Amino acid sequence: xxxxxxxxxxxxxxxxxxxxxxxxxxxxxxxxxxxxxxxxxxxxxxxxxxxxxxxxxxxxxxxxxxxxxxxxxxxxxxxxxxxxxxxxxxxxxxxxxxxxxxxxxxxxxxxxxxxxxxxxxxxxxxxxxxxxxxxxxxxxxxxxxxxxxxxxxxxxxxxxxxxxxxxxxxxxxxxxxxxxxxxxxxxxxxxxxxxxxxxxxxxxxxxxxxxxxxxxxxxxxxxxxxxxxxxxxxxxxxxxxxxxxxxxxxxxxxxxxxxxxxxxxxxxxxxxxxxxxxxxxxxxxxxxxxxxxxxxxxxxxxxxxxxxxxxxxxxxxxxxxxxxxxxxxxxxxxxxxxxxxxxxxxxxxxxxxxxxxxxxxxxxxxxxxxxxxxxxxxxxxxxxxxxxxxxxxxxxxxxxxxxxxxxxxxxxxxxxxxxxxxxxxxxxxxxxxxxxxxxxxxxxxxxxxxxxxxxxx
Length: 457
Ligand code: NAD
Prior knowledge:
The protein is α/β, with parallel strands linked by helices. About 40% of the residues lie in helices and about 20% in strands.
């Protein structure tokens, strides 16, 4: 018998150990895959209306447990209670949205000579879902809900640091009547459990959300079995503010577009690009907005930003703001225990400064001026990332031109919204591959089968 691999789950706002979770090893992973493979044979045959009913029951169980799920995320990930409630509600909404899918997974009938031709959207099999620590609930739900709806079975590997809400979702699924083996939650280490999803021949699809570095390794390894993969990776998104915009609103909202979830958001607008003619005006409006961000106890209803996830991550974030860095101004953060880091604005920055080019994944934003529309697009697109972005202007034509010109998957005009469960989400360039949410996600969990039926005598 080998010793169990125990992981202490830490509250990032207090540094206290909340609980201990046993991490699965290779043998447990293989056993989970075998269960999922066996369950697939029956789950895919559950009548569409019954699969839909079970998913609606699952959504209802999540709905009834929202306060508990939110409290778990406040404690485990340091998310503000307001955000955590939204996240639990988002998990419910996503499951409910895809509960409608089993009865609407239409194929096509294609005109051909000599018979009829129909297509079927077949499930793929066992899906392995690898989740990062920054949004444990929504990211798990975005994959598991459409995958289950399409008739696949699912194993979710939460991030080592944040397993608690995923484990709870697994319990709620069972309580709602989803059969054993259809959805399993398997806490474990990335290079052990996550890697096994990639190498195990019975895992037929991998969904990975996390860093671009690990995503590339997973994509390369999946090639050995021609295993399809959905990747949601990093970002370095631009918030482009034109001189004709509602500057007060653009400045008041900019901090929340990057400091929300303490900047640990793949869609964080961590590069603010401001038309040169209004640069000083914008900075004057931005300063009080940044200083006004309420950083503190995430369980307090008034708090707007909590701690970073870990001491190691705080050290990484701090490395982008070395002594002598061009800090224009910054907000506050509590002293004492907890992995706190204040909202920080860097300006001016050179265009080769790592703070301007690399994903920091913390509450640090850079602000740079641009000359005109072409210059704004040049700067916005001078990155290998392409996840999201915002455009602030009152000129509708410009809003559309710039939206079409920015190489990113999720843009918003005069707002910072990236995610709606009814609309597709995903990255351009090295920010990802494939789309989650909305009608598009089902494509990632089905394969098209074409059947020709001869009508000749
Ligand atoms: P990470 O890549 O270190 O880890 C993500 C997950 O992968 C974890 O569950 C980890 O255990 C697992 N993992 C690590 N090594 C592995 C391996 N060799 N094989 C298989 N699995 C492995 O990322 P992180 O630090 O947890 O998350 C932060 C990153 O996630 C950021 O870059 C962020 O931008 C990205 N992210 C992207 C999106 C999106 O939708 N595009 C959403 C959230 C986070």
